[in-house]
């Protein structure tokens, strides 16, 4: 029971943060309200929906909790038409890496929890966390005709951050039996790793095909 | 029973109209027969298949009614190789907005009906109508490397038209208990709204981020 | 029983060949390890996962056989960091059509077998083979922001090769009751047709809209 309410909290936070990240992109592309709402839905629900399809889990979390649809709608209306949120969007634009990293962290852990609840083996469950975390952003980039960050060489640590964070969370859950601490520690390591990578240029070792060129 | 046969009729009409809309795009991109057939399948079955995956509804409508696969194949062969259809395609090219709007209208209502039949709450069902209506076009634009119209600022009313039409249909069904009239009225409002938007420039209020630039 | 182990063998071969085809693309785009691994997963598991989603077949073949995830990971690490595999990748780069054709052949037949095992009618099953065969490549091209080969006029026989090969396999299975020979003959005809098309320019008859321009 407790793990379910923790799970709901993680998911709700992930939805709000991701819809804001969708709005930043919508502003950049000058979308109208519907484009912005659709993009926010895609970023917020894309990863979780893909996870639920892969796990064959029904009803979807956004049908079970229809309120999510309205939350994202209010976020979209606010950012598109309400001046004070418009100012917030401008401020957040320069912080878009932080917003995105937070969404990545929350959704990765939410995906991991859902997969573990369904009884998946650990390695598959951690990959499911990564898929849930990155899919929203991949969908967003595909529909706006950009190459998703995960496939760009200059993208930095992204899926790796999610993967490491999932295993941090797994370690807390199974070694220390501390799910809540695991969630905090896992999500925090994802955000930290991602931002370190962006601001200090931490990357995976260079592939041989890149070295070739130098 | 009656609602099922109405549903089948709506779906069949939607498949034919959408496959023609796929052929117009295929002609524009100079695809060969297979490209044209695949694109027509994607536009015609993409939205309904996504709907069935989301609703966990099996078998898919195009497996239940395998004849649809052949209908689309005949449409593709006709437009690719038969001179008289080739002439029709050229005429339709200048009417591609009308063809697309009709497909949007029919598939939105078909998606709405399917979701209501599965017992979804009204708001989710109307969103399912919108998803079914717009998904085919989104897939088509993604595989031909364009930004889907729904995410373009200059796209005009598209998802909104679908959403409004779904609620027109819902009103007729639940207030007047008239499913057939609801289908006609709903689909007609979608087509009308979409075309009004294209030809008279009806749009949503400008977002703040667009006003900023002026 | 025997048909199951044949099926597993076909699937395993398809996964390895496809992950190598993913690495060739990853090298071309200078991706890092995670990008390369993700792309290899998408090419190797994309088609089969789409097939399993469409067939509502669970667990996915890569969850049932978690070892596949590690096989692809080893392929990715090898090609990204181990000099001898890096040299192999360079050699394969000039043979990328052959690698891709082999993946197409193996996955098409694997998709066909899975669909027949689920009791699908023949025509739908052969289309499921085509979808399984081409989907990995379509996903790969969509995320790397290219138009999938199946939708390009100059692409040559691709889905057609897969379709013909599926029917060759069906003929052997149902007329001669020879599943293994059918698999060999089917996959071989797909590879042969695809390569003939690439190297000798075999194509479908030109559509009317292409003739118009000449």
Description:
Three copies of one chain form a homotrimer. Chain A has helices at 2-28, 33-55, 61-64, 67-81, 83-93, 96-117, 122-143, 159-175, 179-200, 208-211. The model of chain A has no long low-confidence stretch (mean pLDDT 86). Chain A has 214 residues and is mainly alpha-helical. Chain A contains ten helices and no strands. In chain A, 78% of the residues lie in helices and 0% in strands. Chain A is globular, with a radius of gyration of 17 Å. Chain A has one domain. Chains in contact: A-B, A-C, B-C.
Query: What is the count of DSSP helices of chain A, taking H or I runs of 4+ residues?
Result: 10
Gap between N and C termini of chain A: 56 Å
Largest sheet features of chain A: none
Q: What is the mean pLDDT of chain A?
A: 86
Q: Choose one word for the global shape of chain A.
A: globular
């Amino acid at each position: 029971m407790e793990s379910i309410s923790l799970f709901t909290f993680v998911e709700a936070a992930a939805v709000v943060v991701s819809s804001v990240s969708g709005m930043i992109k919508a502003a950049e592309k000058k979308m109208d309200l519907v484009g912005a709402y659709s993009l926010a839905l895609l970023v917020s629900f894309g990863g979780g929906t893909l996870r639920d399809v892969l796990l064959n889990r029904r009803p979807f979390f956004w049908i079970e909790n229809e309120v999510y649809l309205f939350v994202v709608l209010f976020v979209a209306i606010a950012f598109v038409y309400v001046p004070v949120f418009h100012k917030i969007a401008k401020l957040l634009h320069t912080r878009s890496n932080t917003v995105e990293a937070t969404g990545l962290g929350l959704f990765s852990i939410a995906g991991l929890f859902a997969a573990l609840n369904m009884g998946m083996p650990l390695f598959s469950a951690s990959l499911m966390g990564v898929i849930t975390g990155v899919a929203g952003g991949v969908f967003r980039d595909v529909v706006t005709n950009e190459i998703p960050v995960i496939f760009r060489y200059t993208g930095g640590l992204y899926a790796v951050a999610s993967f490491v964070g999932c295993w941090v969370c797994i370690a807390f859950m199974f070694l220390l039996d501390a799910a809540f601490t695991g969630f905090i520690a896992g999500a925090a390591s994802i955000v930290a790793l991602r931002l370190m990578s962006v601001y200090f240029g931490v990357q995976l070792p260079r592939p041989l095909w890149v070295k070739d060129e130098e």
